[in-house]
Amino acid sequence: MNVVTRFAPSPTGYLHIGGARTALFNWLFARHHGGTYLLRIEDTDKARSTNEAIAAIHDGLDWLGLGGDQPALSQSAQSSRHHAVALALIAAGAAYRCYLTEDELTAIRGASKQSGNAVRSPWRDKNPNEAPADAPFVVRMRMPSEGSTTIVDAVQGTVTVQNHVLDDMVILRADGSPTYMLAVVVDDHDMGITHVIRGDDHLNNAFRQYMVYQGMGWDVPVFAHIPLIHGSDGAKLSKRHGALGVDAYRDMGFLPEAMFSYLLKLGWSYGDMDIIGRDDAVSLFDLDRIGKSPARFDSDKLRDVNAHFIRTMDDDKLFKLIAETLAERGNSPSDTAKSRICALLPLLKERAKTHLDIAGSIGYLLVDGAVTIEDDAAALLSDDAKKTLLDLDRALETAPWTADGLKQAVNDYVTENVMKMRDIGLPLRAAVTGRKQTPSIIDIMVALGQAETSQRLRVACK
Questions:
Q1: Average pLDDT in the 166-193 region?
Q2: Stated pTM of the model
Q3: C-alpha distances in angstroms, 117 versus 98, 104, 437?
């Protein structure tokens, strides 16, 4: 069987975390089986669907590398096909025209709620010719009232519902427009979807949609309903848990590789593998490793995953990201600054969760001659400390300007003056970088060069 999956978001807002994970699982399942992954924009809600949201969804998917294998289908463009299928269901006896008024429907719903049975319209057994001329109507599915329906779900297992709880759902509104329940089935059939992988909030819908497949005599796809994502406290995921749109995470400095790897682990696992790259994910992914319990979104864990990809990223690629960020802030690095940054990237990587962390902490590498000294760093530069640093500057004039040479020279100075390394290391860092915390000050001095380091010491200690 040629596997065909789809991701079908509603364009009423940004691409959120849950939607991105659903797209990822569909993409991976198709890739694992050498199949096709398609996109469908479910834009039938014209009041809430916007072009901006559609663009944001495509932008987020493209950033994650989850663009469709073919141009996306617009569900609203298929409305005439949906209408035709509704008429075919009526002709097959699987659906009927319902002429209930609002008051009549309200009364039936009330009785249904009290009895515990589904909504059944008397028009399912009446002749449409009994309706008043030109009376408005909806089209409802003629759901079975007895027995049960069973779906073997690839994630949830065997699930059964009693048919008497399934309403005669509306598939065509009074204005002739299709409902979601009809449109999604028609589109999935026409697109050749073999596996419907989506959130388990759609599990109840599957039993209703099953009846449309059955009414048309169509093959039913394999359903795989994924447990939803919860916050770290176990509650339904929301913005207070840090759940934002994919575009927001990109703006916060997260890498697409990190987001891909983290989303993969939200509900899917393979042994004790914690960080899984794209190629390995394609090779390993299948539906039987998706858990049945809700995954928990942890923004701290996401930062840790991102830090891993920062540490393993190619230096040239990482510098480009940093340079782009600095340019956006109006501080494009010069060639000299680039040389300094690149020399220190192995150290800067170790401390960073995102490339924005690096961009925001290296101002001392972008300037020449002097740095702005932060208040907590300035407190380290007492008069005695300044005298010591000026004396150290003179002592370093003949030192080899390498990491080993400077370490030896500073150690010798500390020993000769009966000092402790922290007595000179902290004010030295403050004077040279203007900051209290940085990577190794010796490595920074090497990157800056002797003339620049000496200039900074003299300016800071005058």
A1: 96
A2: 0.92
A3: 18, 17, 68
